[in-house]
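Field reference: sequence -> structure
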Amino acid sequence: MGFSSSEDGGHALDLSMAETSRLPVTGVTMRYPQGHAVPMHQHCRGHLIYADRGLLRVETETGQWLVPPTSAVWLLPGVAHRLFVPVALRAHGLFVREDICATLPESDRVVQVSGLAREIIVSLTGLDGRTENLRRAHLLGELLIEELRAPPPLPFHLPWPRDAQMQAVCQALIHDPGHDATAEDWADKLAMGGKTFHRRFLKGTGMSFGRWRQQLRLMSSLTLLMQGMPIIQVALASGYDSHSAYTTAFGKQFGHSPSAFMKHRPAAQT
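Structure field:
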């Protein structure tokens, strides 16, 4: 976060107090409409972004994270990032003092938000700067830090290559996750051998082409589910031949079924 909603002019937010406060954690809340984009920016403090309603995509130079209502993305101080809002949402941006960040996860990631953490986040971003709230803000911040210490990363990250040709492939798949071109098809298009393509893709993303594309398809399908599209249509749009094939892959990736994920949809509407 760092910019207001397009409905409020899309101007840069004044976060000077939040980013210079001696409190362990400070925060702000913004509502963003569907399709809104926040341009690339960065913060001097550790940044936790939580959308308790809707779905948020966070992009950095090294990858993308999709943040459903049960999770938040953790970014280290100074990490440049932009936001895209595929489904209307309310976002909470938390700023963690630099000296505290050393005790928190040492890499950018999506983390699970427990019921307790959610209530702490909402309470923190709902506070104003009045003196009588400072003790409460300090205690809430300390408790949130305890909740965030070394949480396991969740499977909502899509690594991004630096290789320009591999970037072009990934960007094409981002625009059309159901595209059925094989790695060999892409290799031919780029005038290189199949082994060379596989080697460069793996080097650039840390994943095989097939695994990366499947992760992209499953992550992209979350947006369609949140928009209320029937599961069979989501499966076909995401490149799967059947409801069962999609459901099986979804369960292996996220640990629950698409229908279970969709239970979050009604509460996610603004």
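Note: The CA atoms of residues 27 and 125 lie 5 Å apart.
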